[in-house]
Design brief:
globular; 432 residues; mainly alpha
């Protein structure tokens, strides 16, 4: 590789990392807009806090566990980014920034299961351990030369590594924290707790959609053969069909063209195509996106009927779609594209039999079980040490005020008497 070509690749990977990092702004708008006004400042500000936390934890420990040399289960070298210098390739510092962006996205997904009722201190402890230990181990299995990569598991940009891990962690947190106050009636029926700003959610999804062009095409790590353009095409086709499929699906179910479900369809399709974007033909990308959009809608309604309060629908969008997207390469992986990427074998529809589908299913199963168990243990310890959930009074008051001392919208929410008056009002409402 000549110096000019390598320099262009280094710029490409850096710009892709910046695009993925910018997705944090999209998550802040999406999550804050999807929740209530009294928690908006807390939820948006938490994105900055968690990205800062991820930056330190992944630098000190996480990157070494994921990409350091070691065992088939985890890396054991490269702490604090102390890797031997290599000539002729993209520098470790640039690769670290790119992979940090992915780890931070997975953590942002997990936070969806904590929304509106978790303590800020729980965010700090869980976020540190998730980025330092939980996320990197599965990343090592699939991307860092671990045991699943030797089997040929196909996960080009992280349907399993990033999204399934975040979605499973969010589901475990949701179940352990329990539903928000007022979400379910005594007979088990659900109440709608609408987000306070749908324009925020739309803008958030659009920012995330744009950022995904760093996520998937950036994972080529090169611009020299133009393959990143093909990956961008399949990514966009899936997202477009996901939006349309979700909108029609929710219209059939409820009789209304629910905008939030359309947005979930976009994100679910992007999640699903993330594993397969480099392995499938454009027609298959359309199918993958459409199925993901429909699955996300059905999953949202199913979980709510089962009494699960997932405020941002993190598991439906990232967990369910992450599973489907990972399995889809076992069905649709094209021999033509496998020759380019060099990972795994052809899918069932191309005469590959069930081998690749079986590898994909194995990867999904072991990753989901590992993350579920690890997340439960970490949250169980945190709950015993400091507690996971804020008090009823603090939840009624809103986390903006109880955790930070001021509302994100003080003019709309702060009573004339200030915080003390708000606390008395929350206590009275709880008593009623």
């Amino acid at each position: 590789m000549n110096a000019v070509a390598l320099s262009v690749d280094m710029v490409w990977v850096t710009l892709s990392a910046i695009l993925v990092i910018f997705m944090q702004a999209g998550f802040a708008l999406l999550e804050a807009g999807s929740t209530r006004m009294k928690n908006a400042g807390h939820i948006a500000g938490k994105q900055v806090f968690s990205f800062a936390l991820a930056g330190i934890a992944f630098w000190a420990v996480g990157y070494a566990v994921a990409f350091g040399e070691g065992t088939p289960l985890f890396g054991t070298s490269g702490w604090f980014l102390r890797f031997p210098a290599e000539e002729g390739g993209i520098p470790t510092e640039i690769l670290f920034l790119f992979q940090l962006a992915f780890a931070a996205v997975s953590l942002a997904i997990a936070w969806g299961g904590f929304a509106e009722r978790a303590k800020l201190s729980a965010y700090f402890l869980f976020g540190t351990l998730f980025v330092a230990v939980i996320y990197p181990i599965a990343a090592h299995w699939i991307w860092g030369g671990g045991w699943l990569s030797t089997l040929g598991k196909q996960d080009f940009a992280g349907s399993t590594v990033v999204h399934l891990q975040g979605g499973i962690a969010a589901l475990v947190a949701t179940l352990m924290l329990g539903p928000r106050i007022g979400k379910f009636n005594r007979d088990g029926t659900a109440n709608n707790l609408p987000g306070h700003n749908q324009v925020y959610t739309v803008l958030g999804v659009l920012i995330i959609w744009i950022g995904w062009f760093g996520f998937n095409p950036g994972s080529t790590l090169s611009v020299q053969d133009g393959f990143f353009g093909y990956v961008a095409l399949t990514t966009n086709l899936a997202a477009a069909t996901g939006a349309i499929a979700a909108l029609f699906t929710v219209r059939i179910i409820t009789g209304k063209a629910d905008i939030s479900m359309m947005l979930n369809g976009v994100l679910a399709a992007l999640v699903a195509i993330t594993a397969s974007c480099a392995f499938v033909e454009p027609w298959a990308a359309v199918i993958i996106g459409a199925v993901a959009g429909m699955l996300a809608v059905y999953s949202v309604f199913y979980l709510e009927r089962r009494g699960v309060d997932d405020p941002i629908y993190a598991f439906s969008v990232h967990g369910v779609a992450g599973i489907w997207g990972t399995l889809s390469t076992g069905l649709f992986a094209s021999p033509r594209l496998i020759e380019i990427v060099g990972v795994g074998g052809p899918g069932l529809l191309y005469g590959g039999g069930f081998r690749q589908l079986g590898i994909q299913a194995l990867g999904v199963t072991v990753t989901a079980l590992y993350v579920a168990i690890a997340t439960f243990l970490v949250l169980w310890v945190i709950d015993r040490l400091i507690g996971l959930r804020v008090s009823k009074e603090e939840e009624m008051m809103g986390l903006d005020l109880s955790e930070h001392g001021v509302y994100g919208y003080p003019e709309q929410l702060m009573p004339p008497g200030g915080a003390a008056s708000m606390a008395r009002s929350a206590s009275s409402e709880e008593a009623i």
